[in-house]
Description:
Blueprint: H1 6-14, E1 18-29, E2 34-43, H2 60-66, E3 83-87, E4 102-106, H3 107-113, H4 118-121, H5 134-145, H6 150-156
Helix pairs in contact: 5-6
Amino acid sequence: MQLISWQRALCLVVAQKAEIVARYDKVVRSVSTSMPLPSVVRLVRYVGAVSYFGRVRCTRKNILLRDQHQCQYCGIKCRGSQISVDHIIPKSRGGKTTWDNVVAACHDCNRRKGSLTLADAGMVLRKVPKRPSWRELIACLSQDSGVEWATYLLTAM
């Protein structure tokens, strides 16, 4: 089981290395042909793919998914461009970019906190940050954006 881009999935289907299990309503067109956009593909022949997902990487996208695009200081929901990632212990004070030190924050709260600690800024977190499992992250993704392929991943884990 692996997450791949739609472009990679389409290439696998065209090369007849995979078959489409589920598809989006959209169609991909070239000069001479059109194909349904695959959302779930199955390899025709299994060749030593990764047998586990491994640990969830600490990236901006995954942090925003974990926190469900909600500011962890004031609680408002934001769009991707209106929210940032804040270091609880600021980088200027030795804080690292780790799952337990970064949270989603709206721009106003992030500016208000600045390079202060939570105590110095008089702010509190809505929940304690931690590394999510793949299952938790995929559940957040499927409830957040309504992607139908997430159910295939959740049932296989």
